[in-house]
Every structure is written in C-alpha cells, then in structure tokens.
Amino acid sequence: MALKPITGRDPLWRDEFSVYADDERFVTRRQFAKFLTLTSVAMAAGNAWILAKSWMYRAPAYPLRVVAAAGEVPVGGVKLFNYPASTDPCILIRTDQDTYVAYSQVCTHLSCAVFYSQATRQIECPCHKGSFSAADGSVLAGPPPRPLPRVVLERRGDDLVATGVEVR
Questions:
Q1: How far apart are CA 26 and CA 24, in angstroms?
Q2: Would you tell me how many other CB atoms lie within 10 Å of the CB of residue 57?
Q3: How many CA atoms lie within 13 A of 137 on its CB side?
Q4: What distances in angstroms separate CA 32 from CA 20, 39, 42, one per listed residue?
Q5: How far apart, in whole angstroms, are the C-alpha atoms of residue 97 and residue 50?
Q6: How far is Cα of residue 54 from the mean position of the Cα atoms in its chain?
Q7: pTM over 0.90
C-alpha cells in the first residue's frame, strides 16, 4: 500500500516530488519493453562494430629475415633466433639432411621456453611436461591447448629466410 501525501501534514516538498518508494519496486511492461529494446539496439551496434573491424583487418606484413645458412645447423641440431620482432624467441630445427623447421619457442600453455630433445625427436616444455611434434608442431602430450606457431621458411640460395608465421 503506497503512502500518499496528505495536504497540510506533510512538508511541501513531498507534494512536488511525487515519488513513492512502495511503487518503485514494480516494473511496468512499458519499462521492461523499453529496457529490452535499448539492450537489443546496443548489442546490434556492438556486433556491427565487430563486423566492420573484421572487414578492415589486414594480416600483419612479416619482415624477411635470414635465419641461418643452409649448412650451419647440423642434422638434429638447433639454432635459436628472434622473429618477427626481437622479443619473439624462435627455434630452428634441422630434422634431417634436407628438412628445416622453425617454431615459436614459447609454449602455448603458460609461455615457458620449449627446447628440442634429440633423443625423443620432440619439442618439450619443461614446466608441465608438455611435448610437441618436431615435424608439424602439434601437441603430443601434456597440457598445451594448441600447437606451436610455425615460422614459415624459404630456402633462397644458401640462406634460410623467415617469411611469416602460421598460427593454427
């Protein structure tokens, strides 16, 4: 039951400020429909913004960088380098006579540094016993949720050149 101001007993401000606390607990259908409409418009505007940003997105241009000379790394050996920036550690592995692969050296689980084990022919993460395939960077064991990002290599003469990064 709402208390209505009684003229003469209540102060003047109660007559001019006609908000009654008891009536404020209830939401009318009109207020609820207004809330739903405004929320739907806001969500549609947000989705339109995300769509517009995805249309304007351009893949980053990776620099060309000479990583190593072709005979510099022995079979089963590794070379550490940074690509695409000086803060991004990577590992180059020569798996056989003619095959070179390179991956990010940052584990996809908790960003620990990974290393190549020649005994198991796998890339291993010492933090939580995760392991990756040296052939394609896929997860073989442990908690890592995704494969290692692969550095795209091209052989240009006697040089191995990094040209990009593939994230799978």
A1: 5
A2: 8
A3: 26
A4: 19, 11, 15
A5: 47
A6: 15
A7: no
**Cβ distance 91 to 78 under 8 Å?**
yes
Q: How far apart are CA 168 and CA 165, in angstroms?
A: 10
Residue reference for tokens 């993460």: 125
- CATH architecture, range 65-166: 3-layer Sandwich (2.102)
Non-local CB neighbours of 141 within 8 Å, separated by 6+ positions: 129, 130, 131
The phi, psi pair for 39, rounded to 5°, reads -65, -40
Tokens standing for residue 162: 């990094």
Q: Where are the domains of the chain?
A: 12-56, 65-166
**pLDDT tens sequence across 67-123:** 999 889 999 999 999 999 999 999 999 999 989 999 999 999 999 999 999 999 999
Of the candidates 136, 131, 162, 158, which has an alpha carbon nearest to the alpha carbon of residue 149? 136
